[in-house]
Amino acid sequence: MDDKTLTGAELVNPYGDNREKAEQVEEMFDSIAPAYDFMNTAMTFGLHRMWRNRALNAAGTARKSADTLDILDIATGTGDVAFDLHRRYPGARVTGVDLSEGMLRIAEKKLKNADESAKKLLSFEQGDSLDLRFADESFDLITVAYGVRNFQHLDRGYAEMSRVLRRGGTLCVIELSEPANALTKACYRLYSRHIIPALGKLVSGDSRAYSYLPESIAAAPQRDRMTALMTAAGLSDCRWKSLTFGAVTYYISTKR
């Protein structure tokens, strides 16, 4: 996709300067990494754990085979989804990839305190989700939690995920979204555009990161528009389900 044709969240940048979006996203997550886990819990009132559980349950149900050997967690951040996947699939190899070195340092600290099984089967590495180093059809399950709206090119990100996903494999995307109901959306926007940025600035010290959050959510493709992108990338059986009045939506698809 040419930069001149970019739309939506791809045009919303954390710091609004002339650098590539990926560079700004990396800087932002490096900046907020120490506060990230606390802010996730505070701004969602702990609901992010329920959202993750519901989405990963749905992904497990969608699996065509009981065997899940290789899992990729894109935009792994501090590793919470990767650790949950290890608990769910204790014999699987789980690889977490993220742009941010700061976030990965926290994931690695968690791994050092984990049991020997996790240390053997979990790994984290820095990498670009739009240019994955893995061979075609390397993974049985791919997950992305709250990451796709940060991609500089959404279509390229989905194409890469489709490329490295094995036939019969499952993709699970969890993403924040805006409620469809007008009244609920008004309350949501008040909270997300005023209270969250103020709290984020206070806790993380980054005055821009948590203003970028609601801006990127509002601009990102949601629900049917998101599944259309997934279908265009070669994925099939794409479907979505919104939770908590539409504040978050998860997407499930498979590769035939």
List keywords for this structure.
256 residues, alpha/beta, 7-stranded mixed beta sheet, 9 helices, 47% helix, disordered N terminus
Q: What can you see in these coordinates?
A:
This protein has 256 residues and is of the alpha/beta class. The protein has helices spanning 21-44, 47-62, 80-88, 101-112, 116-121, 154-164, 182-204, 209-219, 224-232; strands at residues 70-74, 93-98, 122-126, 139-145, 165-176, 236-243, 248-254. The chain has a seven-stranded mixed β-sheet with strand order 3-2-1-4-5-7-6, sandwiched between helices. Strand 4 (139-145), helix 6 (154-164) and strand 5 (165-176) form a beta-alpha-beta unit. Helix 1 packs across helix 4 (101-112), helix 1 (21-44) crosses helix 7 and helix 7 (182-204) runs antiparallel to helix 8 (209-219).
Q: Which percent bin holds the helix content?
A: 40-55%
β content, as a range?
A: 15-25%
Class of secondary structure makeup: alpha/beta
- Total helical elements: 9
Q: If you average the pLDDT, what whole number results?
A: 94
Shape: globular
Overall number of strands: 7
Succession of helices and strands: HHEHEHHEEHEHHHEE
Evaluate the radius of gyration: 17 Å
Main sheet? 7 strands, mixed
The order of strands across the largest sheet is 3-2-1-4-5-7-6
Q: Indicate the low-confidence ranges by residue numbers.
A: 1-5
Distance between the termini: 25 Å
